[in-house]
Specification:
four-stranded antiparallel β-sheet, 430 residues, Butyryl-CoA Dehydrogenase, subunit A, domain 3, single chain, four-stranded mixed β-sheet, 46% helix, Butyryl-CoA Dehydrogenase, subunit A, domain 2
Length: 430
């Protein structure tokens, strides 16, 4: 059993570091762009007078960085080669995300809005698996060309994590001889709608509340009459691009249907595993950053004539966090490696519990690490002149989004007790 990272992966990390130093860091320092990352970051990023949306200059800077990364062959790394990517594996993506987040805040990787010079594209897998050839060309190639931006309209105001109790309805309706659907309902946390060209809108088309079958997905153009952004929800970490959206007699043709009718819930779940393992790696990297910065500070800070690092009250909490980081790193890398060895459709039934373990624990760990870093740094740690409050506020959301930690623990429990997964046969006689 070999736990060493592949040599070509280590070489690619060095290549990415060189690109960041040559292209991204100078851009970060140019024209006071550092304001988006220093103590002014929340104000610099947020247009508080325009619903709390991201400032245009901030989004232009992120776009500039990804254009440069795309030209260098990095941005599409995780995408299939036929779309200009490198077929980046789950293991390589996990290692890269861990590596990037461990560097701290910067233009190379800012997960507040899922930005990275090595992009994560869950919609590619979704359109590949469920889209028609025309939809694949329009939304995958159009997405990379920045002509198509798709928001995700699944969550609803009254039902949160339980997508099976979906009040948004779509009923068949033909207009001018064209078969289509009439959609009515409301969505929450429909991230990115301020720039989206389409909203992947999930609606019940048959069946009863609570049934997994009977939910369909429609690619609704955001300019469609009856689609309205009601408000942008201000969050713990600003800016916000998370609105509440209403659909009032929104009509779309049959061609907007993504995937099979009534099979939309499987579509919604098709890419959660890739997202969760990569997000877990990012939280791990950020936790590692918090620990390392605390260690450095404790070695140099000398109250009462002695380094803070000599105090066991400082040492022991950081020892526990460092231990958890090391154990979690092994599990994340191993789980990502296992994902690469399984067919995509087998991951849910064979490995979903391990992915959930990685994700919920990493998200909890980074919050603990950021909190401890504030405590070790004292007053300056609590200020915005250090990045820990930003890390805490940002990563705290992942204990709720991407499947709340309670939902993920329930998944682990179902596998552990044999209600789902490989252990189901073990308890078949009960």
């Amino acid at each position: 059993m070999d736990f060493a990272l592949p040599e070509d992966l280590k070489a690619y990390l060095s290549e990415l570091d060189a690109f960041i130093a040559a292209e991204i860091k100078p851009l970060e320092a140019k024209d006071d762009n550092i304001r988006f990352f220093d103590h002014r970051r929340e104000w610099a990023r947020t247009d508080f007078e325009n619903g709390g949306l991201p400032r245009h200059e901030w989004e232009l800077l992120l776009r500039d960085a990804t254009i440069r990364a795309d030209a260098a062959g990095h941005w599409r790394f995780s995408a299939p080669k036929k779309y200009g990517g490198k077929d980046g594996s789950n293991l390589w993506m996990a290692v890269i995300r861990d590596h990037f987040a461990a560097k701290g805040l910067g233009l190379h990787n800012d997960l507040q809005n899922e930005h990275s010079i090595v992009g994560n594209f869950p919609f590619v897998a979704m359109f590949e698996a469920f889209g028609t050839p025309a939809q694949q060309e329009e939304f995958i190639l159009g997405g990379f060309a920045r002509k198509r931006i798709t928001a995700f309209g699944l969550t609803e105001p009254d039902h949160g994590s339980d997508a099976t109790y979906m009040e948004t309805r779509a009923v068949p309706e033909t207009r001018d001889g064209v078969a289509g659907w009439l959609i009515n309902g409301e969505k929450m946390w429909t991230t990115g709608m301020h720039v989206a060209t389409h909203c992947a809108t999930f609606a019940r088309t048959s069946g009863n509340n609570g049934a997994a079958r009977g939910i369909s997905c429609f690619l609704v153009p955001t300019s469609t009459p009856g689609l309205k952004i009601e408000e942008y929800l201000w969050t713990f970490n600003m800016p916000t691009d998370h609105p509440r959206v209403s659909f009032t007699n929104v009509w779309v043709p049959d061609s907007t249907l993504l995937g099979p009718p009534d099979g939309g819930l499987a579509l919604a779940q098709s890419f959660v595993h890739q997202n969760r393992i990569r997000q877990a790696a990012s939280s791990l990297g950020a936790a590692t950053f918090c620990v390392e910065e605390s260690v450095k500070y404790a070695r140099t800070r000398k109250p009462f004539g002695e380094a803070l690092s000599k105090n066991q009250a400082i040492q022991f909490p950081l020892v526990e966090l460092a231990t958890q980081c090391e154990m979690l790193r092994l599990m994340i890398y191993k789980t990502a490696w296992d994902m690469d060895r399984l067919p995509h459709e087998a991951i849910e039934s064979q490995l979903s519990d391990k992915i959930s373990m990685c994700n919920y624990w990493a998200n909890r760990l980074v919050c603990e690490a950021a909190d401890r870093a504030m405590q070790v740094h004292g007053g300056i740690g609590y200020s915005r002149h250090k990045p820990f409050e930003h890390i805490y506020r940002h990563h705290r959301r992942y204990r709720i989004t991407e499947g709340s930690e309670e939902i993920q623990m329930r998944k682990v429990a179902a596998y552990l007790f044999g209600y789902l997964g490989p252990r189901k046969q073990l308890f078949a006689g009960l």
